[in-house]
């Protein structure tokens, strides 16, 4: 659900940008067939890209090209019927592929929507939708994904040139679609709780508490306190003289008394 809520605004923005590029180019056409076909190409290309976003990237392009081929054939057949062209569809498609770009640039204004003047805008619009969806939806980079539709719109304005009125409201709508798409996909800033909402206990800052237990198991072992903090050192004792010192002093005293006695008895 979260994925769809983020991808849907991007997809709608891409469709709007490509469709507005078709509206800008359709100002030099004689009927509104081309803008309608461009809107259809925008919806089809973006829908295929969004639906295949979970598939491998190497598989998305062939699927989209196959869908583009089918849609282009239907669009060329519709344009040939509206222009009352008697040629078969295969010949019309081959001629449109060979001469699509020269006839689009050299046709008289207003341009008639025939296969020769329709195939190039259709293919460009579909490839733009494919590239924009791959970058904006699959790669999750909307700002970079809006670059292909912007280039398509600039190319449409360049092709029209001074041959039509100024596309003022189209440009404003194009810029508005980009702004809305970026605003819808913006991520809100994370809100951090303030200290007033969660007051801090002064005891928590003074004494660190062990982390809470997350599951069954023995309680965490406590680190034993150092011995110097719980036991005082034993009192110092004065060392006693060696045992052999007392007999030596007694023997020395006896010798001195004996010498004094001998000295007094000598004449």
UniProtKB/TrEMBL annotation:
- Which stretches does UniProt call biased (Pro residues)? 208-236
Q: Where is this region: Disordered?
A: 190-267
Alphabetically sorted, this entry's keywords are: Membrane, Transmembrane, Transmembrane helix
List each coiled-coil range.
Answer: none
Biased composition, Low complexity: where in the chain?
Answer: 237-249
Q: What are the TM regions of this chain, as residue ranges?
A: 36-52, 59-80, 118-136, 143-161, 167-185
Top-level taxon of origin:
Bacteria
**Looking at the keywords, is Kinase present?**
no
User: What protein am I looking at?
Assistant: Transglutaminase domain-containing protein
Species of origin reads: Polymorphospora rubra
């Amino acid at each position: 659900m979260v994925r769809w809520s983020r991808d849907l605004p991007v997809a709608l923005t891409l469709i709007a940008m490509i469709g507005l590029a078709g509206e800008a180019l359709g100002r030099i056409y004689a009927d509104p067939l081309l803008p309608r076909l461009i809107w259809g190409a925008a919806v089809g290309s973006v829908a295929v890209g969004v639906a295949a976003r979970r598939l491998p990237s190497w598989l998305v392009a062939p699927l989209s090209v196959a869908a583009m081929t089918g849609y282009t054939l239907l669009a060329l057949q519709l344009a040939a019927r509206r222009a009352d062209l008697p040629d078969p569809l295969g010949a019309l498609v081959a001629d449109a592929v060979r001469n699509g770009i020269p006839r689009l640039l050299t046709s008289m204004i207003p341009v008639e929507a025939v296969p020769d003047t329709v195939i190039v805008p259709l293919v460009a619009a579909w490839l733009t939708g494919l590239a924009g969806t791959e970058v904006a939806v699959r790669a999750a980079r909307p700002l970079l994904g809006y670059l292909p539709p912007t280039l398509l719109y600039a190319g449409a304005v360049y092709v029209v040139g001074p041959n039509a009125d100024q596309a003022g409201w189209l440009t404003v709508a194009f810029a508005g679609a980009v702004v809305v798409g970026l605003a819808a996909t913006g991520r809100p800033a994370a809100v951090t709780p303030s200290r007033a909402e969660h007051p801090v206990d002064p005891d928590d800052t003074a004494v660190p508490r062990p982390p809470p237990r997350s599951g069954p198991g023995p309680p965490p072992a406590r680190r034993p306190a150092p011995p110097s903090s719980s036991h005082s050192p034993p009192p110092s004792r004065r060392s006693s003289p060696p045992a052999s010192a007392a007999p030596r002093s007694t023997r020395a005293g006896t010798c001195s008394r004996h010498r004094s006695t001998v000295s007094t008895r000598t004449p």
